[in-house]
Specification:
The chain is of the alpha/beta class. Helix content is 33%, strand content 30%. The protein is built from 13 helices and 20 strands. The protein has a 7-stranded mixed β-sheet, with helices on both faces. It has a 6-stranded mixed β-sheet with strand order 2-16-15-10-13-12. A 4-stranded antiparallel β-sheet has the order 1-3-14-11.
Length: 500
């Protein structure tokens, strides 16, 4: 794995304190995932409450069927459903051909029923992961597929659900897929974060296929797990804050950052703000101001674990007045700006959650001004777009999918299996890469030969003109005399997967 340390400035004045940022970047190589990967155990936990009836449950079932098709001998799969009650439809089993056929038959039988026992389904899936006899080193994942808000079961309130997850996570991980704008997307993105899994916003039912493909592609291309980054400054230098939205532990002056995994081809950036102490003299070369140690576990196709450790130095040069770098390095500043954008959104949403909507909007507008002043136009535009989405209780609630998508993608785009269309376009404009080649290939395979017809709005004028608005290509008009026999027409517009 390629690991690099970069400060926002290469040269700073020696005779004063300096505030700078350190970026630690990890880049995983491309791997032959089909020949060399650890086994996985994945348990879809499907919401079969009444509101899932129709396209939602149909596409959830198609997603699970595609999953089963792409698992190999040595992988494991189970199936849990939840409505008012929780049912283990299939305990985790190795996916031999005969077991695949049995799993498919069980998936076909799924149908919508009653209420939404979200926590019950989640805990049932985790119990199977933690108590089943699975190979050491097997990647363990529960995937929650739901469109509703928890209204029964062992935990209903968001904090109670998250506390139950923390207490029962064990060695498992949890991803959360939220169907529709009325789903509690903020809760689900929190479940994914606490569960060390991925989040997906499924605006339309057919988006589920692409999202599930990206989820599976991430699991199959996992390069390393249990990543620990330790940053220890010395000589009076101080880490003031970790800007990135990650798990952080600080003891004395040393900061420890934990990442659950990194996928093949993925690049992850950790941003820390530093206060560099004043130096007695200028130096002719860069000086080491912090030690950076990175350890991680590699898993082979036999689930054998190898722990690797790499040691790096974070260096910067202290120079005379007039020789310092006045502005941050543009490439590094883009990374820093992204972390600052997420931090501002987290802060603004904490105000909005307390009903302080004016304050929340102000946080985002200040972030916009700072980013725009540094020439980070795309970042600034996102901050400006977030501000009005926190203007009132109504717009804040209605923008849950967009906000969760944006925060998740800007924190880790590879870990956002599905996101709002507008958020995806804006993330790309900031230069964020959202998926690796394995995920792209699987998304193409999952959606090939799927006849997806997006919903259309049809209006007929008194003169017999039919207007059909088919997203995203605008409106299609078909004119015909009102009294003439109408010909049957099928208008199908395949949903493009290029945006994924």
């Amino acid at each position: 794995m390629n690991i690099e340390t970069r400060f926002s400035h290469d040269k700073v004045k020696h005779d004063q304190e300096n505030n700078v940022h350190l970026v630690v970047s990890l880049k995983a190589p491309k791997t032959d995932w089909q020949k060399k990967r650890p086994p996985i155990c994945i348990i879809p936990v499907v919401d079969v409450s009444g509101s899932m009836e129709g396209q939602k449950i149909d596409y959830a079932k198609k997603s699970v069927m595609k999953l089963i098709d792409h698992l190999q001998p040595g992988d494991y799969c189970g199936l849990v459903t939840f409505t008012t009650d929780v049912e283990t439809v299939f305990k985790p089993v190795e996916v031999t051909q005969s077991k695949k056929e049995q799993l498919r038959a069980k998936v076909q039988e799924l149908h919508a029923q009653h209420s939404t026992n979200f926590a019950g389904g989640m805990l049932e899936g985790l119990e199977h992961l933690n108590k089943s006899d699975l190979p050491d080193g097997c990647i363990l994942r529960v995937v929650m597929l739901t469109d509703g808000i928890a209204n029964c079961g062992p935990a209903v309130a968001p904090n109670d659900i998250l506390n139950a997850l923390k207490a029962n996570l064990g060695k498992g991980t949890v991803s959360a897929f939220g169907y529709g704008t009325d789903c509690n997307q903020e809760l689900l993105s929190s479940v994914a974060k606490v569960g060390k899994g991925n989040y997906a916003y499924i605006k339309n039912p057919d988006d589920a296929l692409s999202a599930f493909a990206k989820e599976l592609g991430g699991l199959l291309s996992t390069y390393a797990q249990n990543i620990l980054i330790e940053v220890a400054p010395h000589n009076g230098h101080v880490i003031e804050e970790v800007l990135s939205d990650v798990d952080v532990e600080q003891k004395d002056k040393t900061v420890k950052i934990k990442l659950p995994e990194i996928f093949a081809e993925e690049e992850r950036h950790l941003v820390l703000s530093f206060k560099l102490s004043e130096q007695t003299q200028a130096l002719p070369r860069a000086m080491n101001v912090a030690d950076v140690n990175v350890s991680y576990d590699l898993l082979d196709e036999n689930a054998k674990k190898t722990t690797k450790t790499e040691e790096l130095k974070a260096k910067i040069q202290f120079v005379k007045d007039g020789e310092q770098q006045e502005k941050p390095t543009p490439e590094v500043d883009k990374i820093i700006g992204l972390a600052q954008l997420v931090k501002a959104q987290v802060e603004a949403e904490s105000h909005a959650a307390r009903g302080e909507y004016k304050t929340a909007g102000g946080v985002m507008l200040r972030a916009e001004n700072s980013l725009r002043a540094r020439g980070l136009t795309a970042h600034a535009n996102v901050a400006r777009g977030l501000a009005p989405r926190m203007a009132s209780a109504g717009v804040y609630a209605a923008s849950g999918g967009y906000r969760a998508s944006m925060k998740g993608a800007n924190s880790r785009a590879y870990g956002t299996s599905g996101m709002d269309d507008e958020a995806y376009v804006q993330v790309q404009a900031m230069g964020v890469v959202a998926e690796n080649s394995v995920q792209v290939d699987l998304m193409r395979e999952f959606t090939t030969n799927e006849n997806v017809v997006p919903p259309v709005n049809v209006a007929v004028s008194p003169g017999g003109e039919v207007k059909i608005a088919a997203p995203p290509g605008g409106s299609i008009k078909i004119s015909a005399p009102a009294k003439k026999e109408k010909k049957e027409k099928t208008l199908a517009k395949k949903r493009s997967t290029s945006r994924w």
